[in-house]
Amino acid sequence: MPMIALALTLSLTAAPVGLRAEEGTTRKPRCDALTTAAVCRDTPNGIVVGPNEQAVVQAAEEAAMAETTWAAAFGAEPPAYAVVLDVAQPVDDVRAIGALRVLPWISTSARRRTMEQAVREAVTRQAPAGQVEALGAAAVQRAAPQIEASVAKASQPGVMAHELGHLWYIETFWKDAQDGDGYGSPAPDWLDEAAAVLMERDGLTEARRAAFHKVWAENPRAEAVSALMAEVHPAFASGASATALTDGPATGSGPRVVSMSGEEFQRRTGTDINAAAAFYTRVRAFLDFLETTTGDHAALVRLTVHLRNGGTVEQWFAQDPAGRQMGGSTSAADQAFKVWADAKTAAAT
């Protein structure tokens, strides 16, 4: 059984009326305000709740580091939030104490158990009566190396921070203008993804850069910037909805964490899983191009505000200082990006 897995986490919708913390609140959720038997740890702007100390401490450290990265990238503290591991606490409870956004997450141990159970269920559907338990155990043992590799990839530093970036971006800039069954915010999909990619840690960032250099060396794209600006996230490119991807309607609790095989991703979205990975890689490359070309850390904030106020990407390139430094239009940015990408790729090979 193929065990190539993807942890697909989608920021789907604003909190419904009745679940959002009081508008204008300045309070931050704190563990001492929460009645719970679960383990809870405070971070500067939020809390992490989970089933055991090890999982919560690990997640709280990553969340706190993501807060620092967000402040550097966007010039302000992130909105109040909570991370809830393994459904350890009802979403309503953490919203009630001030969490504007809630990220349900899967701990490493729970992710491993889920993947092992998927192997057993596959055996159950095919094994002769009386042999299910033995064959299931053997199948889990054979799949163990692939399971561990998938768990490690989905649990590496920066993955959870990526999803917090999605939530904070929506809450900060788009909380009153969201599509209830779409991907992220009304911003272009690449920009939604950029806010999340900026939160990632060094290991994941360098892996994306290495992947880009390989892909670019094989297939440099003359319209790399303009194509990315207009591209739909691969998970939704064939018209798939958030409901279809998550087996149910959006509930307002924030993103749902969906683990699926590459084959399942293909079936639900009509897109190869590698195309999704390539989308993130190209977003990372554009962020590096923006930084190298302009050094302007507020450029994405100004672009977001420009789009939220009804402007277009082309207008921003023509009018904004960072946009003009990249060429003044998407077509000019295409040319500048190609020069930059050719040089970066040559240096890396």
Descriptive notes:
The protein has 349 residues and is α/β, with parallel strands linked by helices. It has a single domain (5-113, 149-348), classed as Neutral Protease, domain 2 (Orthogonal Bundle). Helices cover 56% and strands 9% of the residues. The protein has helices spanning 53-74, 91-96, 108-124, 132-155, 159-174, 189-197, 202-218, 224-230, 242-246, 262-269, 273-294, 299-308, 313-319, 321-325, 330-348; strands spanning 5-10, 39-42, 46-50, 81-85, 101-105, 256-261. The longest helix is centred in the middle third of the chain and has 24 residues, at 132-155. The model is unreliable at 1-25 and 247-255 (pLDDT under 50).
Q: Give the rounded overall mean pLDDT.
A: 83
Give the termini separation.
36 Å
**Which architecture would the CATH scheme give at its second level?**
Orthogonal Bundle
The rough form would be described as globular
